[in-house]
Structures are given as C-alpha cells and as structure tokens.
C-alpha cells in the first residue's frame, strides 16, 4: 500500500489499517484522489467550513501527503464523520512556555508542575485527552489510527490492570500513556505521603508495563493542592494539564462562559462505554471531531507542544 504510507516526520502518528479488503478500497480512493486533485467532492464527505488554502492544504506537501489526505477522506467516510478532519500544522519549532492558568497556581508554585487548560498557541488546534481506562474498545483504536487523530491517555491502574495489553496496543499506535494515579482518589483529602504513593506508584506501573516514565500527570477530577504538585514533581512529573472542555458521547461541556473552543484548548473525555454514557467511544469521537472540524480546528498532539 505505497500510496498511504507516510514518511512525513511532522506526524509521527501511525496508521494501522484493517485487512486486505479495506486496503484495496483505500487504494482505489487514493488513486482517484490523485487523479481528481480533490477527493472531498467525490467522497460525499463535506469539506470543513473555514478550511483555507494554506500551508495545511495537502498540495503544499507534495504527492505523498496528498495520498495520505485521500486516505483520511476515505477513513472519514468509513467512520461516518460529517466532515474530513483537518490536518494539523507541523509541531512548533519553538515550544511554547507553559505557565499555570491564572487562578490555578498553588502557594509557592515556582518550580512545581503547572496546571493549565490551554496551550498558548495561535494555531487553530485542540488537544484530545482521554482519562481513566474502563472501556477498552478495539474499534476505537482502529478508528483513531485510520483517521490519524492524535490523543493522549491518562490512566488509572485500578481500571486498566485487567487488560494492560489494550493500552500496549494503543501505545504502539503512537499514543503517550500518562499518569492519572493508581486508584483515582480525591487527592486533596490525602497526606503528602499518600498522594506521593498514588502518583509515584502509577509512574512505576507505567514504566514497568510500557517502558516509559510519564512526564504528564492529571489529578483525578482536576482536584489538587500544593502537596499534589510537590509529590508529582518528586515522582518526575513536569506538567499537570487539565482541560477547558469535556466531550461526551452526545454533548459538550465548557469551562468558559461563552461555550466556545479556543486555540490550544485541551479537551477531556473518558474511556467509557454505552453503559456509562449512552454511546460508544466511536460516538464520542464523532461528537468531538464533527464539532472541531466544523469550527476550523485540527487535532494536534499535546506532547508536540510541551
Ligand atoms: Zn479520572
């Protein structure tokens, strides 16, 4: 499948496609795109409103990314999206300086991991972060790989321990696995030593199971105090991203009064299934992507900006 292989180092996200039947269909669509120059019209999937001819347009990257774009168009159609997700710009050459969101600092914040809800950037990008780990839907992994949508996971051991392999598969697809404590407690109710056990304990689990010690930590419920950030730092954590919006299987919640997405916003969702929120992970992804794409946003990789 030469046409969909992507050597573009700007996007480390890996594509993991299904069996030969799907590959054949994609090849045909990709070729059609190369001939027509605009696969969106032929696909029946509407282009995003506000999509500008710019450095983000596939033409700017030559023929191979154009083929990759065609694959994305085909994937958008296959997964029933209203629009083709926009391609994010290359990661920033100079990383933004991350500071705590105003009002989210702790006393003596200096040197402690910042708690923030938005990454400072002018690019129209948002970041998808997925918490806990209860639902383990194989179709979700396939959907995100085929659509090439990056996301970042925050795992709690008590929910993932019955199937570490699921998240190993996720990691092999380019997703970074991060710390969301061992048992998901309300951290401000615990002593410093207890908080440190929850955070460092999860660092150990992730390092042991997945070979990497996270630098991102998200406190359960977004609740923390100074001891939380001190403990996190002692465990090797550098950043404590929380979120500015939350997406569910059928709606959005907003932190801001005007209920608008902003450039660099971090969006929270959860590994949840139909029993929890009346939809699948795939429904949640559609709810998420259809809105961000319609508003002209691409989904970027949080780690690329930190
Ligand atoms: Zn959680």
From TrEMBL:
Q: Where is the NodB homology domain?
A: 124-306
**Region: Disordered, residue numbers:** 42-67
Do you know which Gene3D superfamilies this protein is assigned to? Glycoside hydrolase/deacetylase
CDD domains linked to this entry? CE4_NodB_like_6s_7s
Origin superkingdom: Bacteria
Q: Which Pfam families match?
A: Polysacc_deac_1 (PF01522)
- Which InterPro entries did the record assign? Glyco_hydro/deAcase_b/a-brl, NODB_dom, Polysacc_deacetylase_ArnD
Name it: Polysaccharide deacetylase family protein
């Amino acid at each position: 499948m030469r046409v969909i292989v992507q050597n573009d180092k700007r996007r480390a996200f890996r594509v993991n496609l299904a069996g030969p039947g799907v590959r054949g269909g994609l090849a045909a669509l990709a070729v059609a795109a190369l001939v027509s120059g605009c696969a969106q019209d032929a696909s029946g999937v509407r282009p995003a409103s506000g999509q500008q001819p710019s450095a983000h347009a596939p033409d700017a990257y030559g023929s191979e990314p154009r083929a990759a774009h065609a694959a994305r168009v085909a994937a958008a159609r296959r997964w029933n999206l209203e629009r083709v997700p926009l391609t994010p710009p290359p990661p920033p050459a100079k990383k933004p300086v991350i500071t705590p969101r105003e009002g989210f600092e702790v006393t003596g914040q200096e040197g402690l991991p910042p708690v923030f809800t938005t990454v400072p950037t002018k690019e129209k990008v948002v970041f998808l972060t997925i918490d806990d780990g209860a639902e383990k839907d194989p179709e979700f992994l396939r959907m995100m790989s085929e659509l090439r949508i990056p996301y970042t996971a925050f795992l709690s051991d008590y929910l993932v321990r019955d199937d570490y392999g699921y998240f190993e598969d996720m990691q092999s697809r380019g997703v970074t696995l991060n710390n969301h404590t061992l048992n998901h407690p309300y951290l401000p109710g615990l002593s410093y030593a207890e908080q440190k056990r929850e955070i460092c304990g999860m660092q150990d689990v992730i390092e042991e199971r997945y070979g990497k010690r996270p630098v991102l930590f998200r406190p359960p419920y977004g609740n923390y105090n100074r001891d939380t950030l001190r403990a996190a730092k002692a465990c090797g954590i550098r950043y404590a991203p929380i979120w500015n919006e939350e997406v569910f299987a059928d709606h959005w919640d907003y932190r801001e009064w005007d209920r608008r997405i902003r450039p660099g916003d971090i969006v929270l969702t959860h590994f949840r299934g139909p029993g929890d929120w009346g939809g699948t992970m795939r429904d949640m992804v559609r709810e998420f992507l259809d809105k961000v794409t319609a508003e002209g946003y691409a989904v970027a990789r949080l780690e690329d900006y930190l």
